[in-house]
Design goal:
Elements: H1 2-28, E1 29-34, H2 39-52, E2 55-60, H3 63-73, E3 81-84, H4 87-95, E4 99-100, H5 105-110, E5 123-134, E6 159-160, H6 167-180, H7 182-194, H8 204-213, E7 218-222, H9 224-230, H10 235-243, E8 245-247, E9 257-266, H11 272-282, H12 285-295, E10 298-299, H13 308-312, H14 324-328, H15 330-339
Parallel strand pairs: 1-2, 1-3, 6-7
Antiparallel strand pairs: 3-9, 4-9, 5-7, 5-8, 5-9, 5-10
This protein binds fe (ii) ion (FE2).
Length: 343
Amino acid sequence: MRTMILALFFMTLLTLSACTLGVDNDQDSLTIYSERHYDSDQVLFDLFEDTYGIKVNVISGNADPLINRLENEGEDTQADVLLIADAGRLGRAKTMGLLQAVESDVLNTQIPAAYRDLEGYWYGLTKRARVLVYHPERVDERELSSYEALGEEPWASRVVTRTSTNIYNRSLMASMIEIMGYDAAKDFAFSLVQNFARTPTGNDRDQAKYVVEGGADVAIMNTYYIGRMMNSADPFEREVAETVKVFFPNQKTTGTHVNVSAAGVTKHAHNVSNAILFLEFLSSEVAQESFANANYEYPVNEAVAPHELLQSWGDFKAQDIHLTVLGKHAYDAAILMDEVGWE
Ligand SMILES: [Fe+2]
């Protein structure tokens, strides 16, 4: 009898402490699956921890493996927030049922409607423009106009960009499908591929480097890499950033392609209110200033000014599309790029 009582007592104690641990986990911690891997993000996560006393666990990885993991884990997942550098993939996660809709006046105030899912499944946190970067000794700015024009004869063997599997290019083509229709977008992609200076390889920075090395004259790449290279420890990267010039294409027509890093609350989040608080924090002025100054991204919060480097390039017109279309056309974009032989 005494043994039984003792056993019961210890079992109760164990259960109690397990419960307490569980509650602690839910209330005081948050798990993020993040595709972003910048030191500046960790600084922000630390600030969130210090401000709210909520521990942030970050699991980093590439976007697709993180999305697959979330799907495989189902309701057992530890992830409360999915953070990805592409609205198209967040759209896919939404379609796969991996996210949940959340509502917050703070989020709706801090993030313009153009940069969030209108049903609340994901919220854009930073913007980047996909621009043309050129060598000023080989290209006169007046020769540049649009993405489409890079497929024309004067640009034969002078253009570089990365592969078609890269999400930045895939979302660029998804936006062109939305704007031009599939057939015209395919014609454009075909003509662009004919003018590539080399078979696509490397990341965005490598395209700018190739331009400075003389292999090509124009690269299609994201804005923030110029800022990052300007402050690189590698002298060649600094030279590249100081040599090339930035051009915003399609200013007289359909606007420059813009994408966002965005985050959504997972379907099986343990603590939805902490997750929302985290998104509110990341879109607050303090966090947006950090995104703007540490990683040279355009803030989504209009109360925060972009970094002076970005300001020095001037204002630009962005594509007038809702970013949810990037997810809608992601599959078609992949097919199209494959059909035109974009490696
Ligand atoms: Fe990037």
